[in-house]
Amino acid sequence: MDTTPNLGLPYIAAAQAQKHVTHNEALRALDIVVQLSVADRDRTVPPDAPTEGVRYIVGAGAADAWVGRDHNVAAYQDGAWAFFDPQRGWLAWVEDEGRAVVWDGAQWSDFGGGSGISVNPTPLVGINATADSVNRLSVNAPASLFNHEGQGHQLKLNKATAGDTASVLYQTGFSGRAEFGLTGDDDFHVKVSPDGSTWHEALIINGNTGAVSFPNTSGSAASASIAATFALTLAGTATGSYVGATAVEVGYAAYTRMGELCSCRCAFRLSGVTDSELAAGSILELAGLPFPVDDTAGGAAQAISGIAARAVGGVDNTQLGGFAMSENRLQIVAFAAPSNNARNSDWHYLNFTYALRP
């Protein structure tokens, strides 16, 4: 064997004359491939005035002095180009791109599939900091930037179960002061703390309804702009003129929370009923109130106020004969007379206010 098996470096033969020639040839080869750093990996023709020792990865479709040397490592030594066929696993730093590449036997690819040196996967990453088993990514810096790659960008916090926490925690001296996210359930919470131990809920957004509550705000201070919409659906009882209803068509359904009171305004009509005058005593039960009602005293809770306004085209307002609530449900009992011209298929307009469950 005249050369080494990996780099093809020439051996000095026994009793060889001019041993320095063979030795220097091996040194030149080592100077090319050891700690390989190339100026460029896209060129297909050599530069007009190369500097001594400069190295390139020859691009595909090479020509001139590089013809037939696609993907080779080309080095300018002693006024001529020397070429090396890369072996699988060779690494090279590409100076004009600032990244490492690896030869996989067919092409030069970004080392690890991305720019620079990959850390995928790695158990801990500390940037100007020391990561640990809990804070596996730790960054000490004036700011952190997560930029788009041409379109949008999402920051995702995922948790295993509803009872776990996915949140953003703000600290002073590593003591918690504010937190928002899914803390212990699937509702969205915003809470604050004066000392990192005692926490006060400032805002909760119900994950099922979107209803907003301010647990520690009451009275007129809470009435500033606590407003949103809610949905109504059929639930349970339907008697009299309401029998046969299959769905609720909602024109609008909005509420304003004022401390521990909720004021609702809605308009709806029913699908599936046989059009007729609205008979007195007809009962309709709906689900979807934005907050559970205060029924802690036992029995069905009563609204503080409530009226059912006339249907479109009607003559007079139709007062409710009954108005009861439980949990997130509303039950109305119609009180109508033929002179009101109210019908079961008309739009029903409701305004009512009720107390929230403490």
Q: What topology does this entry show?
A:
Blueprint: H1 19-33, E1 37-38, E2 55-57, E3 73-77, E4 80-84, E5 91-94, E6 99-103, E7 108-110, E8 125-127, E9 137-139, E10 165-172, E11 175-183, E12 188-192, E13 200-205, E14 212-213, E15 227-229, E16 233-238, E17 247-258, E18 261-271, E19 283-287, E20 301-302, E21 305-309, E22 320-326, E23 329-334, E24 348-355
Parallel strand pairs: 1-5, 8-9
Antiparallel strand pairs: 2-3, 3-4, 5-6, 6-7, 10-11, 11-12, 12-13, 13-14, 15-17, 16-19, 17-18, 18-24, 19-23, 20-22, 21-24, 22-23
Question: Mind explaining what this structure looks like?
Answer:
This protein has 358 residues and is mainly beta. 4% of the residues lie in helices and 36% in strands. The protein has one helix at 19-33, and strands at 37-38, 55-57, 73-77, 80-84, 91-94, 99-103, 108-110, 125-127, 137-139, 165-172, 175-183, 188-192, 200-205, 212-213, 227-229, 233-238, 247-258, 261-271, 283-287, 301-302, 305-309, 320-326, 329-334, 348-355. The strands form six sheets. The protein has a five-stranded antiparallel beta sheet, with no helix packed on it. It has a five-stranded antiparallel beta sheet with strand order 15-17-18-24-21, with no helix packed on it. The longest helix is centred in the first third of the chain and has 15 residues, at 19-33. The chain starts with 18 loop residues before the first helix and ends with a strand. The relative contact order is 0.07.
